Amino acid sequence: MFRVSQRLMAGLLTHYFTLLQRCFRGRGAEVRQKIRQQLAAFLKKARGEMTFAQFEKKMGISTSTLHRIEIGEQNVTIDKLEDIKTRLKASMSDIFPE
Question: Fewer CB within 10 Å of terminal CB in the chain, N or C?
Fold first, then answer.
């Protein structure tokens, strides 16, 4: 497997979200909500039977932030999304299957 620099990955993620915006022009709030829901579902599945405290240690994110992400109330930066992806050894298609 090859390593991708953080700068390149950030560029790819920015491009990905730009494409999403173009595809769903005029439906921005709907798209943002869908992205939040997919991230929430992914994190709930990844957490499994772990408590928020256990998952917090693994993720390096506070319990309250994890909870807000899981209920779709927390915006996540591209950098934080990259960190989540790295810590869980996941791909973008794992997090956003649709």
Answer: N
> For 5, what's the count of Cα atoms within 13 Å in the CB-facing half-sphere?
3
Query: What is the rounded distance in angstroms from the CA atom of residue 39 to the CA atom of residue 57?
Result: 19
8-state DSSP, 74: -
Residue 24's Cβ-count burial label (10 Å; 0-12, 13-18, 19+) is middle
Q: Is the dihedral of CA 61, 64, 65, 68 positive or negative?
A: positive
27-43 per-residue burial string, b: 16 or more CB within 10 A, e: under 16: eeeebbebbbeebbebb
